[in-house]
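Researcher: We plan to redesign the surface later, but first we want a full-length starting point. Tokens attached.
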């Protein structure tokens, strides 16, 4: 992750270590833990940075130091820094989840990383009619979907998503180029055959459903229509 980009997105105010020396600033210390479970993440690279710039403007961040989390996920620095983030293979690292802005008053600063997870979706036509389905990532005006004849099925490439949380899967089914608004007859199953439920329309013109995806694993479901 680019620390320059991280600073710009976080939008922190100018920071100068030479200002207000009377203010006690605690060196950052805490744990690197997993989203949803709080499981410690050992061996993560933790980066301490200092940044300067303008609020919601351009900012520059410079790495001051780095360390690794121990077997219990703990890390600690001996000097103060404006921001800490962590990186570990198999985990997402971005500005919204892992980077923390420090004002120097924190006594414990945990860094939370969402684990990789995968969602594999099988599309199955049980309707007896030729319908076209548009899965996520292929939408857009005039997009060609996947046309499945009766009893035909296909497995989509697994999606890399954030684990240990719900994932919203939006799709569309069309007939004659017109999206169907009736979700009756559309069912979503888990790999073991248990029913996840029926999709919802709510305020969307396309059906969608929400599925919880554990980290470090592949969740397999079937959309039958």
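Model: Full-length starting sequence:
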């Amino acid at each position: 992750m680019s620390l320059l980009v991280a600073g710009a997105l976080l939008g922190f105010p100018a920071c100068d270590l030479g200002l207000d020396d009377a203010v006690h600033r605690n060196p950052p210390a805490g744990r690197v833990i997993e989203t949803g479970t709080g499981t410690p993440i050992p061996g993560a690279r933790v980066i301490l940075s200092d940044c300067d710039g303008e609020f919601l403007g351009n900012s520059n961040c410079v790495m001051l130091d780095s360390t690794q989390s121990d077997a219990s996920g703990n890390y600690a620095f001996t000097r103060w820094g404006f921001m800490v983030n962590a990186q570990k293979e198999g985990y997402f690292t971005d500005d919204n989840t892992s980077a923390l802005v420090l004002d120097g008053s924190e006594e414990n600063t945990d860094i939370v990383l969402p684990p990789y997870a995968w969602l594999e979706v099988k599309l199955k036509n049980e309707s007896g009619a030729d319908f076209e389905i548009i899965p996520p990532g292929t939408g857009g005006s005039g997009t060609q979907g996947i046309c499945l004849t009766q009893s035909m099925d296909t497995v989509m490439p697994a999606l890399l998503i954030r684990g240990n949380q719900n994932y919203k899967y939006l799709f569309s089914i069309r007939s004659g180029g017109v999206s169907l608004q009736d979700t009756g007859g559309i069912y979503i199953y888990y790999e073991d055959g248990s029913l996840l439920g029926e999709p919802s329309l709510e305020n969307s013109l396309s059906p969608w459903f929400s599925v919880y995806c554990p980290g470090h694993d592949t969740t397999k479901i079937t959309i039958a229509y």
